[in-house]
Amino acid sequence: MTVRRPRRIAFLLSQLGADASAAFEEALTPLGITASEAGLLRMIGRNPGISQKAASEQLGVGPSRVVAVLDRLERGGHVERRRSATDRRSHEVHLTPDGERLLAALRPIAEAHERAFTQGLDEDDLDRLAASLSAIAAARGLSRDIHRDTRGQG
User: Fold this and answer.
1) Element (DSSP H or E) covering residue 123
2) Are 9 and 16 in contact (CB under 8 A)?
3) Tens-digit pLDDT profile for residues 28-65
């Protein structure tokens, strides 16, 4: 009887995730933004006029954390907050023209990062890996588009 060694998939995913996060932060250095700022820029680019509250809910973080990131992006001239025309208590967030340029500059960095982490895999391997990771993420209630804070902190 052969004893099967543990696959350690969760450990490997954690190790790769930490490595990918650190490498992405480093790749963003020339743009002068963090991964959190890049993620929020991407969200705003896909959802122009998103409210601060909706962004907070989608990211799974407390409003104060989103506000802190938005403050940095606003100081950098990348986003602007506008009072909602339908709810004066709410602020909508929009990319500025500089924010649009920054988002465009972010795309090739993200694509190069993706290629670096999938190097050595052919298209069939990539399809299988993407399908497997998507299935795991779905089973855990995670989105493939939003990097939520899953630590339960807000």
Assistant:
1) helix 123-139
2) no
3) 999 999 999 999 999 999 999 999 889 988 888 888 89
Is residue 55 within 8 Å of 147, Cβ to Cβ? no
Has this prediction a pTM greater than 0.85?
no
Phi, psi angles (nearest 5°) of residue 92: -95, 145
Contact 97, 78 (CB under 8 A): no
Helical segments of 29-122, H only: 35-46, 52-59, 63-75, 97-118
Number of other CB atoms surrounding residue 95 within 10 Å: 18
From residue 130, alpha-carbon distances to 17, 49, 109, 117, 135 in Å are 14, 31, 20, 13, 8
